[in-house]
Amino acid sequence: MIDPIHSLAFSIQASRGVYAVLVGSGVSRGAKIPTGWEVTLDLIRKLARLDGEECDPNPEVWYRGKFRKEADYSDILDNLAKTPTERQQLLRGYWEPNDQEREDGEKQPTAAHRAIASLSANGFVRVILTTNFDRLLETALRDQGVEPTILSTPDQVVGALPLIHTDCCVFKVHGDYLDTRIRNTPAELAEYPPEVDRLLDRIFDEFGLVVCGWSAEWDVALRSALERAPSRRFTTYWGVRGEPGEQAQRLIGHRGAEVIRIEDADSFFGAVAEHVRSIEDFSTPHPLSTEAAVASLKRYLPEPRYRIQFSDLVDGAVERVVEATSGKEFAVEGGPTPDGKSVTARVRRYEAACATLLAMATVGGFWAEEEHCMVWERALQHLDSATLSGGYTVWLELQRYPATLLFYVLGLSALAADRLRFVGRLFAVSLHDGHRGQVPAVSVLPASCADRGKMVLLDGMERRYVPLSDWIHDTLRPYVERIIPDDENYNLVFDKLEILMALGYTRHIHDGWNWAPVGAFIYRHPNREYIIAEIKESLSKMQDESTFVTSGLFGDTAGDCERSIVAAEKAFRSYISQMGIR
């Protein structure tokens, strides 16, 4: 039988934005936010202390004996504070951290809050309902770069945009702790204003539902809203610890809900978010759509009369990559610090988005003629144009990953066909690079291959000398297998491209550093020596007529090229010595 949490993850991933989340006090428990019962016990202790009595270890027993009735959160609160304003002030300290609690990490968003926020940031969850007064969800969402629409009063509900136009809505059905209209007493929880009921009716009718941390015991009006929902277009999933109470069981039966046994809210929502990400990572374009695009490209390439169709086809593929990588899941600011899991997941999402374009580029690079160059140059510039300047460094640098992948695939395919002039055109494509302004592509795209400090975060790359280079090598192998079927030859072509990149880099960077971007050739000594010897021999024999000169790869004359080789070899030796490569 399929695990229901897997079914939930598939449903959320396949129906982006269709599932709403309903969370109760159990979700905030890990943040040391007290439940209503815990607040009740604390209030009883304070009452007992005022009377000079000791009520522990059973405050509820003391209360029953003192007042001749059962302890009830709403009843006690209603008697202690007669107005909503007084209740707000009395309860405020239960939700806001003091200095010590803040230092201890208490009353801060939990793993559950952050997992829900992650699902929202990636567009999978757009509506969050909560019975909690705290602001942990809002904090977690803002940490992910999401500015939610908050609905906590009837007037806010009336003035809100339709849910279809809202990226993320947090509906606090019982209010916010800083608002005097919070709902606490039995009368307040028994019936909602018509505006609130109407919105709940729409949500429960139009959205699937994920329930967690809500007992359903006290919230009469919320139960009624669930019971009167006319249809079940989408499944209700209900996360429970132990056995659900009588009211929850009744709602589960009424909704035909799928019950998921959980250990706690943190592990539940963490698992859901992780499973959704995993499914998303493997959701590459359908092979038939990729094959159709490649077939069209092959038909357009040899015919000058199809120049416009060829351009439109490539431009369209590039635009789809840009759109796919512009969502919140590729944000560079906010959220937790990047780690191995998140970096690997993001890299794979980039690769999935680029799959069709890379398959096209394999053919396009191999058969590229002069009239095709401008289209691929424009493709590189378009992919690189969205680069931002603020945020986590690793996310900022990875924005260039799609352009880097295209750069590599076009270069590998062109080298396999001995089209050095086309590779030279790729190297010279003008890209924007911060304070330096417009610079040649070869001076920015391959440079991160040497940044071992960040790219060791990639899964399985922890001990690699050049982790990103090795990762790209393995990632692109399937794309160029048709034109470079032999693995040894693939390694040689890959190393040749990276050596030419390093030489092109030294040509354009004049900062006096003994540095050049290194690749897998740094530890594949025979390939490096063979390729450099080949280049030197061509320059020695052909001088300025060498194809390495006429292609403009790394110098305008044989002398320029030789100086680039000297600088690059010096950088290679320095890196080999520094890393202890044998």
Offer a quick outline of the entry:
With 582 residues, the protein is α/β, with parallel strands linked by helices.
What does this entry look like structurally?
The structure is a single chain. This protein has 582 residues and is α/β, with parallel strands linked by helices. It has 3 domains: 4-32 and 109-271, 3-Layer(aba) Sandwich (Rossmann fold), CATH 3.40.50; 36-103, no CATH class; 284-579, no CATH class. It has helices at residues 4-14, 36-50, 59-67, 73-80, 84-95, 99-103, 111-121, 136-143, 154-159, 186-190, 194-206, 220-227, 246-255, 265-281, 287-300, 307-324, 340-366, 370-384, 393-398, 401-416, 420-428, 452-455, 467-480, 487-508, 525-542, 547-550, 558-579, and strands at residues 19-23, 125-130, 149-151, 169-172, 208-212, 236-240, 258-261, 430-432, 438-440. Strands 3-4-2-1-5-6-7 form a 7-stranded parallel beta sheet, sandwiched between helices. Strands 8-9 form a two-stranded antiparallel ribbon. Helix 14 (265-281) packs parallel to helix 17, helix 16 (307-324) packs antiparallel against helix 17 (340-366) and helix 24 crosses helix 27. The radius of gyration is 31 Å and the shape is elongated. The model has no long low-confidence stretch (mean pLDDT 87).
Helix content: 55-70%
**Whole-Å distance between the termini?**
52 Å
The overall pLDDT average reads 87
- Report the major sheet: 7 strands, parallel
